[in-house]
From TrEMBL:
Keywords assigned: Coiled coil, Membrane, Transmembrane, Transmembrane helix, Viral release from host cell
Domain of life from the UniProt record: Bacteria
Start and end residues of each Phage tail tape measure protein domain: 124-317
TM annotation in the entry: 58-85, 502-525, 532-555, 575-592, 604-629, 641-661
Protein name per UniProt: Phage tail tape measure protein domain-containing protein
SUPFAM superfamilies: ARM repeat (SSF48371)
Keyword Membrane: yes
Claim: Zinc is one of the keywords in the record: no
Coiled coil, from the record: 23-50
Pfam families assigned: PhageMin_Tail
Length: 806
């Protein structure tokens, strides 16, 4: 047996890394099995004449079934194993391609494999090869790693799968937008996806335009959202492709800051300072964007088409002629449509990758990445070693398999012949002798062989008894079943003619109905079709030409009326427009006054009403106190009456005074807006005013801090108030303690900052000198600083002595 074991171990050790050859061998084995089954079938036809050479009867059927089942199981196992190994092979090939295309090290490949596996489990990519290619391109273009690489590759796949966008072009566009506008990868892809959804890619130029013109929009102070808003406005206004819109912005950006005579004349024609405009656009930022919008609107408002075209071409080149004024005007008046913070890609992912098929595919991918691929990673080194040593022993294996095959073939023929005997003759005495011979050939003694043969014979006898019992039962049941079959047959015999008669009757009815309707239809068509033909001819030859002639005659009158209406409208509008401008100017000037007056009136009315209610409450308390003899309550009512009177008077008096203060403050605001540059002969610089505004009269029922003189009334809130000057005097501290006592609080410390308190002063003067400075000038500046410090200290001491006593 040692030789057989050696052959088996050699065979097991020489399996190749892939099972492609194994599948070929399996197919060949199945074909050979079919041939042997056919030979067995041929042998069984004459096996009944052989004595002692067959297994006979039902046992042959069992043997054939067992052979077929074994073949089926082996084939299924080979298919399952082949599928698993095919998965592993696809993964290994894809990862090898990824490493080759990126030049990644072993450590980097670990990161790439993690990214690929995570995305594969998310049902992304069509295959391992597809994911490998996408990750390779993303890494090469963006230089990203880890989680950022995975997220960016995922979004690029979304753009490809949903909108058909090329992955490298998508990555280049998003990378350019990120670098120019300082936005994140999520924001860039959200804008690209939203743009595709809203039709910006109708000419197939969305990615190219975003990639090419992002620097131009950035130079003019636009954000990424505003670039897409401009693209959309241009297309909606009639631009025939996205590239023209972006090229117009690019051409303007170049010409607006080139300082050429043509650009300067164009700015001047619009009433703008050419030098200032050139500097503004060269600087970029928000002012450049604001000026860009202003220039486009001014161009759109030029009424003379020849002059407008000359200015437009000077600042936007031939793109102005291609786009025309309607598109240019729209680009200068864009509407907010795009928001890079809206999770457009996330919404796409929810819809795109949620389905029953996706869920089932996800389960398969989880199984693949969790079991098949880890197992293949472990087996790959072993398989490679096996493959390397396969060539050494292959000749010996082929020779051994040939000998084993011949032996198995002869044995199979003998067994097949015996099985055929059993199938025909059963397990008789002759078959018992054959079985004893087989048992002895396997090494058993006479008694053991006889026991086995007797046991097999007993089994077949019992199967025969079972067969006889079944036949007896069938013969007993058959009389009861036969009447049912007879009844069913009788029913069918009666139903079939009836069904035929019904079908024949229906066909006859249809034929009669058809025969009856045909004359009617023919008559009606003969009568009415000429009428319909005359009507159609009348409409075609007279009605339609008459209508066309009438419309043709009316059109000039309509056009003439339209011209007159347009002229009249323009005339009326030129008259009404200055009036509207004047009314708007008056309203804008008067509205602040109206607002302050209304607010002051509301406050005055509210205070007056509150005072009146306080007075009424006081009268009620006074009357109640007098009639009940509660003189304390009566006195409280008197106080409430006078408090309500003063509160009402205060609110009413404050109203006109606050209106006057508002008017003065508006004058102050106007004066504070006066700003102008001083000429060099006056020292240069700028002149402006910063006059503080006056405070309105109000109360301090809710408390507050006053830092400058103002008019106010106190006690208007109905609560007791304590007014404490912040001057560190004894009286102020006493009032402070009184307030704390009234609030139920006791000050924890009492301090005095009188004359004897310590004062900490940090003095660090800074002198700035320009040009050549000598020692005398430095000493003079230091002397001035010392004098200033002494004056400040003396003033501080005087202030301390002044507030030391209440």
């Amino acid at each position: 047996m040692s030789r057989e074991y050696e052959i088996a171990f050699r065979l097991g050790a020489q399996l190749q890394s892939t099972f492609s050859q194994s599948f070929t061998q399996a197919n060949n084995s199945i074909a050979e099995l079919e041939k042997r089954m056919q030979k067995l079938e041929q042998t069984s036809s004459h096996s009944s004449s052989k004595k002692g050479g067959g297994l006979g009867g039902a046992f042959g059927g069992i043997g054939l079934a067992a052979v077929g089942a074994t073949a089926a199981i082996g084939t299924a196992a080979l298919v399952a194993g082949g599928a698993a190994f095919s998965m592993a092979e696809n993964y290994q090939v894809a990862m090898a391609h990824l490493q080759q295309s990126t030049g990644a090290s072993a450590e980097q490949m670990g990161e790439f494999k993690d990214v690929a596996t995570s995305m594969y489990n998310m049902n992304l990519g069509e295959s391992w090869d597809d994911l490998s290619d996408a990750i390779s391109k993303t890494s090469s273009i963006t230089k990203l790693h880890g989680k950022e690489l995975q997220e960016t590759t995922t979004k690029a796949l979304y753009m490809r799968d949903v909108f058909g966008q090329d992955i490298p072009e998508t990555l280049k566009a998003s990378d350019t937008m990120m670098r120019n506008f300082g936005i994140s990868s999520d924001q860039a892809f959200n804008l690209l996806a939203s743009g595709a959804q809203k039709g910006l890619d109708k000419s197939g130029e969305l990615l190219d335009s975003a990639n090419e013109y992002a620097p131009q929009f950035k130079a003019l102070g636009f954000s990424a959202d505003e670039m897409f808003d401009t693209f959309s406005s241009g297309l909606d206004a009639g631009a025939f492709n996205l590239d023209k819109v972006g090229d117009a912005v690019k051409e303007f950006n170049i010409r607006a800051k080139d300082g050429s005579k043509t650009s300067a004349q164009a700015f001047q024609a619009l009433g703008l300072n050419a030098e200032k405009m050139t500097q503004t656009f060269a600087k970029g930022g928000p002012e450049a964007k604001k000026s860009f919008t202003e220039v486009l609107n001014l161009i759109s408002n030029v009424e003379d088409p020849v002059k407008r075209n000359a200015i437009g071409v000077s600042l936007l080149g031939t793109q102005f002629e291609d786009l025309e004024v309607k598109v240019i005007s729209a680009m200068g008046n864009t509407q907010k449509q795009f928001d890079s913070t809206k999770d457009t890609m996330g919404e796409i992912a929810k819809v795109k990758y949620t389905s029953l098929g996706g869920a089932i595919r996800g389960i398969g991918r989880q199984f693949e990445t969790s079991l098949v691929i880890p197992l293949s990673d472990k087996l790959l080194p072993v398989m490679q070693n096996i493959s390397n040593s396969m060539f050494d022993v292959m000749p010996a294996i082929k020779s051994s398999l040939g000998q084993v095959g011949s032996f198995i073939g002869a044995a199979t023929s003998e067994i097949a012949a015996d099985a055929a005997w059993i199938w025909e003759n059963g397990f008789d005495k002759e078959m018992e002798g054959v079985t004893i011979n087989y048992a002895k050939a396997l090494g058993l003694n006479d008694s053991q062989a006889e026991v086995i043969a007797s046991s097999i014979a007993n089994v077949f006898h019992k199967l025969g008894d079972l067969r006889d019992k079944f036949l007896t039962l069938w013969s007993e049941v058959l009389p009861y079943i036969q009447p049912i079959f007879s009844s069913v047959g009788s029913i069918m015999a009666q139903l079939i003619p009836i069904m035929g008669e019904i079908m024949s009757t229906m066909v006859t009815m249809a034929s009669k109905i058809y025969s009856a309707l045909i004359p009617v239809a023919t008559y009606l068509l003969g009568k009415f079709m000429p009428i319909f033909a005359n009507i159609a001819s009348f409409i075609a030859t007279m009605v339609v030409p008459s209508i066309a002639q009438a419309i043709h005659a009316i059109m000039p009158h309509i056009l003439s009326l339209t011209d007159k209406l347009t002229s009249a409208f323009t005339t009326v509008w030129n008259i009404i427009r200055p009036i509207i401008d004047a009314l708007v100017a008056v309203f804008n000037y008067a509205f602040p006054t109206i607002k302050s007056t209304v607010v002051n009136a509301i406050q005055a009315i509210s205070g007056a009403i509150g005072g009146i209610f306080d007075m009424l409450g006081g009268v009620i308390d006074f009357v109640t106190g007098v009639f009940t003899g509660d003189w304390g309550k009566a006195w409280l009512g008197v106080r409430e009456i006078f408090g309500g009177i003063f509160s009402t008077l205060g609110s009413l008096l404050a109203f006109p005074i606050n209106n006057i203060i508002d008017a003065i403050n508006r004058v102050i605001q106007g004066m504070n807006n006066i700003k102008f540059d001083l000429p060099e002969w006056l020292g240069g610089g700028s002149f402006d005013l910063n006059i503080p505004e006056l405070s309105k009269i109000g109360g301090y029922a809710d408390g507050g801090v006053v830092n400058s003189p103002e008019l106010a009334w106190v006690g208007e809130g109905g609560d007791s108030e304590v007014i404490v000057p912040i001057n560190n005097s004894e009286r102020s501290r006493s009032l402070w303690q009184t307030a704390g006592s009234m609030l139920g609080m006791t000050p924890s410390t009492q301090g005095s900052q009188g004359e004897g308190s310590n004062i900490s002063v940090t003095y660090a003067p800074v002198n700035n000198f320009y040009g050549n400075v000598d020692r005398a000038q430095v000493e003079a500046a230091q002397s001035d600083n010392n004098d200033d410090l002494q004056k400040r200290l003396h003033a501080l001491q005087r202030q301390q002595r002044r507030v030391a006593f209440g």
